Amino acid sequence: MKLLVINDFGISGGGAENRARLLLKKFVEKNRFSEIHLLEHKSSGSKMDGIKVHKCEGGFFGSFLAAKKIIEREEIDAIQCHNLTVLNPSCILAAKLARKPVFWFVHDFWAVCGKRSFIDPEKAEKEKLCEKKSVFSCAKCVGVPGATRLFLQRIFLNLADAAFAPTGFSKKALESRGIMKGKWHVVAPWINTGLLETKKEKRKLQVFFAGSLADYKGAFILAKAFKIIAEKDNDAKLAFVGSEQEKESQHRKKIEEILGNGLLKKTIFLGRLEQGELFREYKKSIVFVLPSICMELTGTTWMEAFSCGTPCVVSRLESLRDFAEGNALLFEPKNEKDLAEKILLLLRDKRLWNRLSEKGLNEGKIVFSPETAESRVFAVYKKILGIYKQ
Question: Which residue among 174, 227, 229, 298 is least enclosed by CB atoms within 10 Å?
Fold first, then answer.
């Protein structure tokens, strides 16, 4: 069998991109497909052993024609889609016209929110998803052209044969808006558990954040909370991991202004880290914080930190509670005082810290296992491919 992966954000990147790459790696390791092809936007730069990469311009016709050409020329048997905003969902139409099964993985809520569908999360900072069920209600936010585009995208998405969501909440949020009704499969998010086996690191009194420094990720909320923490614990340090491009960004400057010169001496900006380095930093830290103020689908970084045995403090967003509740301390979004209190609680309560640390070490590699996820995903592929062969 031959698989075509349509992936508009490239294989390298953040949590969603890492999961996409890891799933394909497991497919290659288990020889699930004789060939795997990847179609991505020309601006992406993916490289991965065992996968042939194709480029296209994107847009409605560019996506459609590129997908159609590869499906016909390479004799593709199944199509796997991730997101689809830069590369248009019209590529799903190309697959269905060729009578090939399509499997869609949801990585965020772009299909729910018009603003998110145009990759502008800074304008979609609300901790609750928009309650508008009709796509045409989105016209007030993104205009008639934007709402029309979202309407067409949803039509093409609904042509897919199966969809995979990481949580019951994300499934419900999409299905309640008429997206892929009755076609959903909930598969727990997976992380690179192979990196959990690296050596132990000596813990530092370091509060750790990993992700974009943009406002919607809440890094500035953590900076405000750290000012409170520093008044009560003079030894605590703060570390941020983000992209190198953010070195001189307005987001970093905002964080630096909040902290002031005194606390900047206790703060380190590590830039972008490779996965192995990131996991080592998780293991060195005393607390990990996911302070998002925008709806995250899963928040992969806290799951990785949790699995490394680092207790976490996570924003009390509806979309995160499926896994975070009971495994992390939750705080009210945008509330730096509540966040500071939760971090200080972990710094002071050794019994609580040990309980959450041991829970992560014992359960993380099982709950977020990529092997389990791959097996469940491929079982769905196999069933639907069997139907098509009949």
Answer: 227
